[in-house]
Amino acid sequence: MADKVPALLDAIELVNQAIALANIAKTNVPSDDQARALERNLLRLNTELAVLNAELDAALNDATGIQGPSASQVAQIESLLNQVEQATNQNAAADNVVSLTGKVLDLATAAISNH
User: Fold this and answer.
1) How does 14-36 read in b/e, with b if 16+ C-beta sit within 10 Å?
2) Distance of alpha carbon 107 from alpha carbon 110, whole angstroms
3) Do 49 and 16 meet the contact criterion of CB atoms below 8 Å apart?
């Protein structure tokens, strides 16, 4: 299962970057609705991060049943990493951050649900 470690590490990096981006967006005085959406996504991102870290631990300990992200999900992770990095560099608006963190959540949830 060690072959899934790099993909899991990429997924963890993506979720961590999305969390950082959402926290930055919260400081840009979003509307009440945007702030609530960011908080919801932050809670879910932190939950997904905990699950990904547990899967990484299991993969590092050669546990069976850990599949990690698929090849297409790995490609999506790379694409989203680039989008998150661009949004961070451009100080993206809260609406864009809510949308982007939602995409990260969908991908993280799908990657975790592979088994």
Assistant:
1) bbebbbebbebbbeeebeeebee
2) 5
3) yes
Q: Which amino acid is at 109?
A: T
Q: Which two tokens stand for residue 12?
A: 């963890």
Tokens of 109: 């949830």
| pLDDT at residue 45, as a whole number | 93
Residue range 19-46, pLDDT digits in tens? 998 898 888 877 899 889 999 999 999 9
Average pLDDT score over the chain: 85
Mean pLDDT of all residues in 48-73: 85
Question: Cβ neighbours of residue 87 under 8 Å, at least 6 residues apart?
Answer: 21, 96, 97, 100
